[in-house]
């Protein structure tokens, strides 16, 4: 079930909101309503996998109690290891079994040994987000950051909460536990602010991301041998803007829906394309994943407490893991390694060098690094990524056959670029009161947003379905 499809917009969403509003007089009833709605929402897309999630939720609750009630360090550590391994096993089986089998088959055939059958395992929607959030609960209880969930209902709601269920943001248990315990009752301001944010997300997805996706698909589906310098850059730039508007659009929808029910979900993007270094970029892009990696992987590895060499190694390992988390393909692995290398270079010398440059120039350099990385992320193979990068580095490369890129794709890409440039320019307007300006022009901006929202819905109904990029993760 998609947030912007008629079933959700005109039936499921309004029905859940009205039931929550009029029948949720008491806290427990509100929790039951949201939990039931969230289970139905996920079961609509994953009617089989949901039973495995229920089983793992039950295991989490049992393990958390064992961790909390045990006074022996070794016993608590073993229970934590069991819970983490059980959750990671779900992720490995569904996401990486086929990838591992494919590579093992290639190795066996290279050694002239009989190959193996490659299992075809369907990847459940949102499995990576679900597993990472469940791990935060167990680790938080182990660290004493939070107590075990007061009831299985509240923990189940944390796992299944439908606004963030399919593609984040990744919500750490200690960041949301008090809100679920309090079960806030939404007011008019919550609804207005939340629905405005939701509309913005729909506009980003349907008017921008989906149009840009068509442009990227047009280039990446062609034989690289027939492309030139301009086409290669066009395809990668289409994807660069597509992934930002696609994923930030989903985050806007999730945050907006949560707000409509009275919940405050943490921001997941902060103008990432104004970054002046790769370190700055990862402070702004997919903030929930970056903070998860920092708290639950980087710090346990030792962080920066064990000398410079170990710090660099930890950074590299964390972003290698980030690449693997994003997908079971060598392109994602290389993308993770690539980002890890530049984060290490930032700590060694690159950030200092970039800080000596004008911000706009440092931003341009950082964006070139990011765009090269997105080439690996979007490419269907390492060979395609390498060929595209070779074309992008050769201004004299000409295409063997003209690629007809529709004008609307170019116009949307230019508007997307202009929005990112405007974000950069807004950083220089330090004394302007954006809050009061937003209040003064609230009617005009909301009216324009509503018109764009209706246009986005019309486009969504007319054009072929394009799933969110992060549904694959």
Explain this structure.
With 473 residues, the protein is an all-alpha fold. It has 2 domains: 6-183, no CATH class; 190-472, no CATH class. The protein is 73% helix and 0% strand. The chain has 19 helices and no strands. The chain is globular, with a radius of gyration of 23 Å. It starts with 5 loop residues before the first helix and ends in an 11-residue tail after the last helix. The mean pLDDT is 90.
Cα distance spanning the termini: 17 Å
Low-confidence stretches: none
Which whole number gives the mean pLDDT?
A: 90
Strand content: under 5%
Separate helix tally: 19
In total, the number of strands is 0
What shape does the CA trace take? globular
Helix/strand order, N-terminal first? HHHHHHHHHHHHHHHHHHH
* Class from helix and strand fractions: mainly alpha
Largest sheet: none
Question: Can you give the helix content as a percent range?
Answer: over 70%
Count of discrete structural domains = 2
Radius of gyration of CA atoms, rounded to a whole number: 23 Å
Which key terms come to mind for this protein?
473 residues; mainly alpha
Summarize the structure.
This protein is mostly helical and 473 residues long.
What is the element layout, followed by pairings?
Blueprint: H1 6-23, H2 27-45, H3 49-69, H4 73-110, H5 127-143, H6 152-160, H7 162-165, H8 173-182, H9 188-220, H10 229-260, H11 278-284, H12 287-298, H13 308-326, H14 330-355, H15 359-378, H16 382-392, H17 407-426, H18 434-440, H19 442-462
Helix pairs in contact: 1-2, 2-6, 3-4, 3-5, 3-6, 4-5, 9-10, 9-17, 9-19, 10-15, 10-16, 10-17, 12-13, 13-14, 14-15, 15-16
């Amino acid at each position: 079930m998609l947030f912007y499809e008629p079933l959700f917009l005109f039936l499921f969403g309004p029905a859940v909101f009205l039931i929550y509003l009029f029948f949720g007089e008491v806290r427990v009833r509100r929790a039951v309503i949201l939990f039931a709605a969230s289970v139905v929402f996920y079961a609509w897309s994953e009617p089989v996998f949901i039973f495995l999630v229920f089983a793992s939720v039950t295991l989490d609750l049992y393990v958390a109690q064992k961790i909390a009630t045990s006074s022996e360090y070794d016993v608590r550590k073993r229970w934590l290891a069991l819970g983490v391994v059980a959750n990671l096993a779900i992720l490995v089986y569904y996401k990486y079994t086929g990838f591992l089998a494919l590579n093992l088959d290639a190795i066996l055939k290279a050694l002239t040994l009989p190959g193996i059958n490659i299992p075809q395992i369907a990847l459940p929607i949102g499995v990576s987000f679900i597993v990472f959030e469940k791990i935060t609960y167990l680790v938080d209880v182990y660290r004493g950051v939070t107590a075990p969930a007061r009831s299985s209902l509240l923990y189940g709601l944390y796992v299944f909460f439908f606004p963030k269920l399919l593609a984040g943001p990744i919500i750490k248990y200690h960041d949301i536990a008090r809100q679920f315990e309090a079960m806030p009752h939404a007011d008019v301001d919550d609804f207005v602010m939340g629905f405005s944010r939701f509309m913005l997300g729909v506009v980003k997805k349907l008017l921008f991301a989906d149009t840009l996706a068509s442009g990227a698909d047009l280039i990446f589906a062609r034989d690289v041998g027939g492309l030139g310098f301009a086409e290669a850059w066009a395809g990668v730039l289409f994807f660069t803007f597509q992934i930002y508007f696609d994923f930030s659009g989903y985050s806007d929808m999730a945050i907006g829906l949560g707000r409509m029910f009275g919940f405050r979900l943490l921001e997941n993007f902060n103008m990432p394309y104004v970054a002046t270094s790769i370190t700055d970029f990862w402070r702004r892009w997919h903030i929930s994943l970056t903070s998860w990696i920092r708290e639950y992987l980087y710090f346990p590895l030792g962080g920066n407490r064990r000398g410079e060499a170990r710090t660099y190694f930890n950074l590299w390992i964390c972003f290698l893991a980030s690449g693997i988390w994003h997908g079971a393909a060598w392109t994602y692995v290389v993308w993770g390694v690539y980002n890890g290398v530049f984060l290490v270079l930032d700590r060694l010398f690159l950030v200092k060098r970039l800080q000596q440059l004008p911000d706009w120039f440092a931003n341009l350099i950082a964006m070139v690094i990011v765009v090269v990385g997105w080439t690996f992320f979007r490419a269907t193979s390492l060979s395609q990524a390498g060929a595209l990068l070779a074309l992008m580095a050769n201004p004299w490369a000409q295409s063997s056959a003209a690629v007809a890129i529709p004008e609307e794709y170019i116009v949307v890409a230019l508007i997307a670029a202009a929005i990112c440039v405007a974000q950069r320019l807004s950083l220089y307007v330090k004394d302007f009161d954006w809050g009061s300006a937003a209040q003064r022009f609230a009617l005009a901006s909301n009216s324009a947003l509503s018109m764009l929202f209706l246009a986005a819905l019309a486009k969504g109904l007319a054009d072929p379905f394009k799933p969110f990029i992060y549904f694959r993760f």
